[in-house]
């Protein structure tokens, strides 16, 4: 009991101590601005034009009806209702996601890569999502360096993570740590002192940059505490974001794993604004909560089994299938197992999507990676056979609108191949990536003066009256 009291006092003291981390990071990054136009400068130059574009659109077309709402949509989770503004990405049912108008293959081709690497650096996608522009290699190198310079965690956050029991789910620890960083929020402190609305985006930008920079340290500390020896390597200031995450997790010696992380973090960033993690971050942010509180809320949504846990469900199902079929990966064997799954009233995990009606391009990018790096892996061969057989079975079954795989049908097998087998941690990796997609929109929201989100709700009796029903 005495040691707990001493530890608590130290924790409170470290929280109360004035933080110099932000100023040190900003001082360290000033040198980068002389090399190329910074991300902050690039975004700031775009704000007036974006505000005028929105004003003109609302003035000239504000009364235009853009859709209709059915009662099924109201009671079906608002599925398909057109009501959100999300600049970074748009999801097409046939061709999949486009990031600022660019497909995943186009992003893989156009975005800067690490020296000798094949996959795009997620720093480049973050720049694209925020500004709509493809950055230069130098701009991406500068952004990598800036995030590395901002990456140190406050001591009290390190202690907070270390004090979590290893039985507490990694996603819960992740959310706790991100919430605790509110203590460092430039936005919250500036708002408390009083600031102009035109300044909101700058403090939101600074918080978002700090938060993204610190996520690898948070995620790795959780991973090393729960599953390994608790020791986390220091951030290497001359390395990119994905390399540092890989190194701190303990996998950087395998260059292929580092390349996988670059691909993984890029393709999991953003998927329109209507999914739970994206919408929740936007919704909480619309109340002018800081990026730390907003992302923590989004992470809590991501932790749900109907959202971020899907890749674990796929891997569990594939493992069960492998145990039953063994080395018999014949068409007939896989077909029989699929039908067995469906006849038990279960779904085929990783197949189907709320919007997509073709194979998810994110799945395709991971499949192409596996074909290059692990073509003989038994689990990849199983995944390939399921990909070959499942669409036909699901079409014949007739209850799946999209019989093709989504991103979750592949990612777990890749992570497991490289030795990251702790499935409870997979959603934390997803959370690191999703931050890169939702925080640009939060910055944009504050820059253009987006209002608090407040849709209208009705009781069931009121809805019945609206549609002329008698209950």
Q: What characteristics describe this protein?
A:
single chain; 2% strand; Cytochrome p450-Terp, domain 2; disordered N terminus; Citrate Synthase, domain 1
Structure overview:
The structure is a single chain. The protein has helices at residues 2-16, 21-29, 39-61, 71-75, 104-110, 122-131, 137-149, 155-163, 170-180, 186-193, 200-227, 241-249, 255-267, 276-286, 291-302, 310-325, 331-343, 361-373, 378-397, 408-417, 426-448, 460-466; strands spanning 89-92, 96-99, 102-103. The protein is 61% helix and 2% strand. Helix 8 (155-163) packs antiparallel against helix 9 (170-180) and helix 10 (186-193) runs antiparallel to helix 11. Among the domains are: 141-307 and 423-448, Citrate Synthase, domain 1; 309-418, Cytochrome P450-Terp, domain 2 (Cytochrome p450-Terp, domain 2). The chain has a 3-stranded antiparallel beta sheet. The chain has 471 residues and is mainly alpha-helical. A hairpin with a 3-residue loop joins strand 1 (89-92) and strand 2 (96-99). The model is unreliable at 1-19 (pLDDT under 50). The protein has 22 helices and 3 strands. The chain is globular, with a radius of gyration of 23 Å.
